[in-house]
Amino acid sequence: MKRYRTRGPIGALLALTAAGGLLLTGCAGGGDADHGTKESAADSRGDSAPMPAPDSPRGEGERRYDGGTATGEAGNTEDSPEIAPDPDHLSTFALDVDTASYGYARRTLSEGRLPDPSAVRPEEFVNSFRQDYDRPDGDGFTVTVDGARTDEEDWSLVRVGLATRGAEQEGERPPAALTFVIDISGSMAEPGRLDLAKESLGTMTDRLRDDDSVALVTFSDEAETVLPMTRLGDRRGRVHDAVDSLEPTDSTNLGAGVETGYDTAVEGRREGATNRVVLVSDALANTGDTDADAILERIADERREHGITLFGVGVGSDYGDALMERLADKGDGHTTYVSDTEDAREVFGEQLPRHIGLTARDAKAQVAFDPETVAEFRLVGYDNRQVADEDFRDDRVDGGEVGPGHTVTALYAVRVRPGADGHLATATVRWLDPRTRAPHEESGDVETGALADSVWGADRGLRVTATAAYFADALRAPYDGGGGALPGAPRLGELAERAGALADRTEDPDVGQLAEAVRQADRLT
């Protein structure tokens, strides 16, 4: 159960005033002290002064949602080592566009196994589906806030949607300098690992522009730069030959691969280009430096000094999901998971070429819920992407990187005060221009009267979001066939029926895959 450090009522009002009514928090995923999108002001970049922290003291109670019971009495520590006050109605998080958790869960279910609950990150389920949010004409974000009531009295689901401009057309983006770091350890010999990576890299090489550059690093027990940074132009044949030569061997020295990959990326770094490391691995480190923190610190150093971001692509039925997510978070990037040729073609042939550029750096969101209408709230997922409320406008504190064509969705369970009417919440996103580092903000809000009467009667996008969130929530709960902890959660059997009906109405193959995954989970419980 997610618990919130919160301020007392006076502090909440001061925070609302200081934020100028911009009161939302908590979207897409990554970055506690160990997992690393956030970092202290002392070791992060930026010139902006931090936003002053509210001067009211923290209170002494806790309010939580645990499937129907709300507690707010001071000193209630019966099931938690923490003491926290009533909610201050602010929620703040770093943006992220990871989707690997959902892809890996689908793969696991298709093999007749339930995923490990610790590998289920609800925000990555939610962000795996296309949304039709309005998009801005230029750089930056649009902010969409909507919601619907659930079957549980007074509880609603509120969705915060952020969207960047459409993916850049050919020739509009800056050139790219991509260093591919490929795992060729023995475990990658399994079908659907190295063979899939080789096919994908070949496809992507043909999709990149002549002014793009590619380097290739491999690792098993040791790491080797197979191809230094090479401008494509008429040299695509050299890249294809290097990719075709890859063969699995020995063990997995992931630390050596990451270090050599970043060394190669720094050596071949191009000014004015998007410099990125693309790590393709099952992330099952078993040789050399297997300490995650040491590997992560190496990535953080290169990111701070050279602005090189990391894109993690997971493969394999056995997959080090947690390590790959931490690497991408520390490297200001994101992760995805590919299980078959169709996935690989989409990621390497479509997504990565379109989304090479960056629209926003260090992007954070803050959601402010109106204390006059909201009694309590819970952010769904984003457990390791939380940012201190007072750090929202401190541009030295790290956020997330988002490219063109992306959407980010955050979902909240919100208990509305009985009979309350009026302003419900305001969501604000803050980001830095990738070139000038100038800060920008955009906001959106929602009223109680705008909430749809039922989640299942809301628009398509919100229904898909709710279905994905309920599914992830159920997979994290005990496998007794019941619903999860979210308000209004249906049993898996009912959720499978609703997902199937939604897939039929939308004729969306992605929703069809979601419906099939829910059915598989229902059969396994």
Descriptive overview:
With 525 residues, the protein is an alpha+beta fold. The chain contains twelve helices and 18 strands. The protein has helices spanning 9-18, 100-110, 122-126, 194-207, 236-244, 254-267, 292-306, 321-330, 341-354, 460-476, 492-506, 509-524, and strands spanning 24-25, 64-65, 70-71, 90-94, 142-149, 155-163, 176-183, 213-219, 223-231, 274-281, 309-314, 334-337, 360-369, 374-379, 400-402, 407-416, 423-432, 439-447. The strands form four sheets. Strands 1, 4, 13, 15, 17 and 18 form a six-stranded antiparallel beta sheet that branches. The chain has a six-stranded mixed beta sheet with strand order 9-8-7-10-11-12, sandwiched between helices. The protein is globular, with a radius of gyration of 23 Å. The model is unreliable at 1-87 (pLDDT under 50).
Bin the helical content. Answer: 25-40%
**Residue windows where pLDDT falls under 50 for at least 5 positions:** 1-87
Distance between the termini: 22 Å
CA-atom Rg in angstroms: 23 Å
Broad structural category: alpha+beta
Largest sheet: 6 strands, antiparallel
In total, the number of strands is: 18
Approximately what portion of the residues adopt beta-strand conformation?
Answer: 15-25%
Q: How many helical elements?
A: 12
Average pLDDT for all residues: 81
Principal-axis shape equals: globular
- Which H/E pattern describes the elements? HEEEEHHEEEHEEHHEHEHEHEEEEEEHHH
